[in-house]
Amino acid sequence: MRKKKQSKFPAKYVLLIMTILCAVIIGCSLKTSGSGPVSAAAGAVLAPMQKGVNQLGSGLTNLRGHLRTKKSLEKENEELRTQLADAQQNLNQVQLNQEELDNLKSLYDMDQNYADYDKIAANVIGKDAGNWFSVFLIDRGSNDGITVGMNVLADGGLAGIVIQVGPNYAKVRSIIDDNSNVSARNLSTSDLCVVSGSLKTMNESSLIDFDDLRDKEDQAKVGDQIVTSNISDMFLEGIPIGYITDIKTDSNNLTKSGHIATIVDFEHLDDVFVILQTKDISTDTTNEQGGE
Predict the structure, then answer these.
(1) What CATH number did the domain enclosing 212 receive?
(2) Are the beta carbons of 151 and 124 closer than 8 angstroms?
(3) Which sequence ranges form a coiled-coil region, renumbered to this chain (predicted)?
(4) Which of 64, 122, 173, 188 could cross-link 140 (Cys pair, CB 3.0–4.6 Å)?
(5) Is residue 124, in this structure, part of any structural domain at all?
């Protein structure tokens, strides 16, 4: 018996028939009312497709919105960075201007406090190595009337003394230098003492030493102001040096010694005054001078 040959229906025709069927269903759904069976069938077929399309469209819209938001935030962030940089620059300029005003006010106050002396302002332009302005240069010299032995003021107190002069500069030895000695007086008791520079003490406690204070009445105390004495042969009388921070009786039971907090900030020196007169001393302007 011969087996009957089985016929095959091409898949492309199946796809074509389904496409036509879908088109018919869609057409019918458009012509019938929304409550008809054909419309319901079409809705059942198209609703999932429409939902997927809607979700895809919504996702693309959200993605586009996120991209726009990101670009907007990046632009705003860059603008804020620019504004912050400008604000910081303005703040720095204000601080510099305030520092300049403070320096000018300090110089003015100091000028008024020493109105009896002829003075000239100068800028500090250099110093020896180290943290302290123990020996430093100023931008005034012999062309400005500066000579060796002139007293130098800063912050309302004694900074040092001119030890070398050039046409446009001068070198100053400060009172904290190891080679500095100043004849001084306790302003409260009028007792004399010697103030000695000491970089070692400055490094340890930011103080300088005083000794040989003859306090017979035992009246000297912490907080007393120390000024230059009338018997000094290098420093003009009455210039403030600093304040006593500690005091003790020496082993000889005749004198006292201790430490002084200087009025001048020897870690930060920008502007000074030079008093244009000296005590009656003989100096060689080519050589550096030591302390008293």
Answers:
(1) 2.40.10.340
(2) no
(3) 63-104
(4) 122
(5) yes
